[in-house]
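Note to self: user wants both folds in one dump. Writing first protein now.
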Amino acid sequence: MIHHVSIEADDPMEVATVIAKLLGGTAREGFPFKHSCAAFSGDKYGTMVECWQRGKVVSIPKSGAGEFEISDSGTRQEYQAFHTALSVELDDDEIMAIAKDAGWATAVRGNGAFSVVEVWIENRLLFEVLSPTQTENYLRVMT
């Protein structure tokens, strides 16, 4: 089970706030680090999406011990291979309305076995958001 993922955002608090709306949860600024924000689902699994300022990276401590190091990468990727699928309690129209209010692109896409609502976070990072019906179909195919 994945309990949280970390993503980059130009506006971490705005992104955390919108993701929290999709999850039916809350957003918190400065968590778990001063430069990041988080969207909490409030579910029994502690599902969270951590939103870091774009360009920040985590690395192994040079000393080999202690906490990881946070630094500036010096680069700003426009797109990336990372994406995730989130199950929510909203229908397609509600998902798309929340994303549209944020100015983000959306599309409903399917592969024949199941479909997802693509939500393009800040129009550059893909989240596949699944309504309850889409989640049922996904689980039927994937488990």
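First done. Writing the second protein, which came from a different request thread.
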Amino acid sequence: MADARRDHIRAKGALFEAFAAAALLIALLAGCGGSGDSAAADEPFAGYWIGAGKAQMTLVQIATDGGKYIVLANPDVPVGDTGEKDGSLIVDSHAVVMTFTPASADKLTLEFTGEMFKQPQGISLKRVDETQYADAATAYGVSAIKRGLAMWKAGGGKKYPPPQEVTPTGMLAQMIRWPGNLFTGQPMHPGESEGDYTYTLLAGGKKYSLVGHLSDGSTVGS
């Protein structure tokens, strides 16, 4: 029964993260300008891409190495072996197959298939520059920390954790994959520098505020 309860908590946390991430990314996409790469027409895949589906946030960075594509996602996790077929880039991680197809110089269509999907799911990705991608990664990191906080409460916590536990070395980091700060190349830390976050307990620990700090000095989160 204990294992079933933990699995239920994890599932609720993952769903919470997905919807929170989508909301955060929609706000960022609204503020993104045009292409982040003037050479987009010469290289349809390589670059930084962000997109939002109905309940998921997707960040993808694609680079070339010795004529082979390297794909990292959400925001810097290797996702699998790559190959090309009929003008599309295919990433096969066994349970999930990702198919990237150019829609224009600054847009890709990403289709998800594989064992995890009853039917194909597709989203549109928009090309951005490195700074915009790092800002989106900050939003993604905030949503990941929110997931951990939701898991904390779902696990029976009467109050949200104290600030010292909401750090890369705190107890919350044992519950989630702690997000990174793409501006520094280090884990996200408490603070007001770009790519970091501010976590504040409210109402005696029954509520909290969590915001991430973006490159233009604004914040994302609540």
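Dump finished. Worth passing along: Residues 37-128 form one domain.
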